[in-house]
Structure prediction request, 442 residues.
Amino acid sequence: MKPGFYAVIGNSDYIKINNRKVPIWELLEHQPTGWLCSLQTRPEVIPENTPIIWDCGAYSYREQDYPTINGRYVDAYYVIHKYRLRSKAGDIIVSPDNLLMGDNINWRRQFNLENATNFIKAADSLPDRIPMATIHGLSLQEKLSNAIALYTMGYRHLGIGGLVRSASDYSGNLQIIRAIVEKLRSVDSSVHLHVFGLCAPKYASAFQEMNLSFDGSTHARTAFTEGIFLINSGKDIVRYPLSHAPRCLCRVCQMVKKYGINPHYWGKGRNHDSARMAHNLNQLLVTIDNISNHERIYLISGCGKQLYHPAPARELYCSQLFQASRDYVQNLNAKWFILSPLHHTIHPNQLIQPYDKSPHSMSEDERSAWATTVTQQLVQIAADEDTEFVFLTGRLYREKVIFQTRSHGYKTRTIANNLGIGQKLAWLKAQILVNRQQTLNL
Prediction:
């Protein structure tokens, strides 16, 4: 299981455009490490080919001593049956648990223990899934004892739960989390830990230092119940009431605007609220990405008109789109390379001759062979498997390369991939202005 942020996704996390329910993940510039879904999440909103944590949804039945979902009693065997139907190879499946609250806490403790015991045995019937159990306790000592008990049962992936109610107690929660991490890793350095429900930037920074995964639904809560508009500010995020929210040029806002949807509207329809949720998630992902210490390599298309004489690759291409893309990545002080149909992966300073070749002139087999060579070069360029490749390219430059780099375990991301050339130019110029303004503010 990869460390990083797993965004919570629910049944209403889509925008209706031209009679189609467009899942929010199709609109994002950035993608989370994976997604957290409950057993009640409909399949059509769940992304494919990405890590999923399947959770039984303890928060939804927190008031029930005898937990039920859709009238069915929740226990290890019920959720294993559901996970068999809904999950895929490599997914994380979480043992049913109950929050330690109310008047029947001892019964809830026993429920958690018995189901964790039964669940890991039943999970043998799903050998290509990864079982996880959740650590609970009313005191730090109880949490530590529970963590060791679950590890002794055989769990090597453990979640830390029950901290959302005290989310504002940043130092207190981090003290608990660090103690659990140190205790378990003193026993087994390879054990993986996940924190449920905490994803604010200050938590994200600490979790990345500890190499943890974590999840959260801040984007939904702020959008639907609080009417808050989130804006990234470097490694932090600013909360604006809608009456004072600034104009936004992020990809989500640009995309939905074309269909008459405005994330700044409150109480004027579900589509506007859902767009705000997508925007808020996008801003949270940008912030978490800025906090991350992993290497990021930008790739742009060597496209359009060229000079008539040899030149460094950064200067050879004369098209507005190439130059705007170049200015964008240079403004970020980012590491970047050019993808060329003839030269494959080119360093910006490499001296090359003008040439006449485009991906459109290549056959399917030629593009596949080209992508294989590009991927081999990128693997050599990357510092390690935590490297993220960011594609600011046309579809034919990226689709086969993305598939192959992901098969090597690398993260990929595309920027402005659904915008026309004019819209993409406007977006790039706007992002350069935003980045310069943030630099001036610092």
Summary: The CA atoms of residues 294 and 386 lie 6 Å apart.
